[in-house]
Design a protein that fits this description.
With 214 residues, the protein is an alpha/beta fold. The chain has two domains: 115 residues, Rossmann fold; 79 residues, Regulator of K+ conductance, C-terminal domain (Alpha-Beta Plaits, 2-Layer Sandwich), CATH 3.30.70.1450. It is 31% helix and 25% strand. It contains seven helices and eleven strands. The longest helix has 14 residues.
Amino acid sequence: MYVIIVGCGRVGSELAKLLSSEGHNVVVVDRSPKSFDRLGKTFNGMTLVGNGFDVELLKQAGIAQADAFCSVTNGDNSNIVAAQVAKKIFKVPKVIARVYDPSRADIYKSLGLDIISGTILFAAMIRDKIIESRFSSYLIESKDVGVLEIEVDKDIAGKTVEEINMPGELLVVMIKGIKGVILPEYKTRLQKNDVIMALVKTESLDTVRSRFKI
């Protein structure tokens, strides 16, 4: 993929290094040349100094061929403007903007942008640890449904996924076992010490805890 990242702070630089190490073509834009030091010596992408909403600079960055555009500076307004330029003017297929202010997130989503709010995600992570350390609602960006890890003990070992599922409350989607990770079928049988990953309705957590004694 061809990805343009605006903002080379902690998030932007880590994202750039990750994508670059996976073989993607990455261009990083930042107003401060010094910020590119975070990329390290192994980064093999392109760096450009300037604003992420500068049309001419984005053309230089190759935005016409970009598959994705991410604006992750420390300014909400800059991120939104840059994202709208990428989406509305250059028609980039995938546009993502980082937003700090949670109250703005829904407003910006209504503009058709993919919004990532670190404030909301971090709060959700802490909330999940308080409610149930095995539960991660932030993984699917919904307060209504989350992912729960359940270790298979003697009480449920030997049962099939179909027997474990709780219609409308819990759905097993992955099993981590001795042989690695599998996406199970309904007739897949659980082995002791397997770890199942299940989608769970948040309001059903107490019911699920009771059934699996966790």
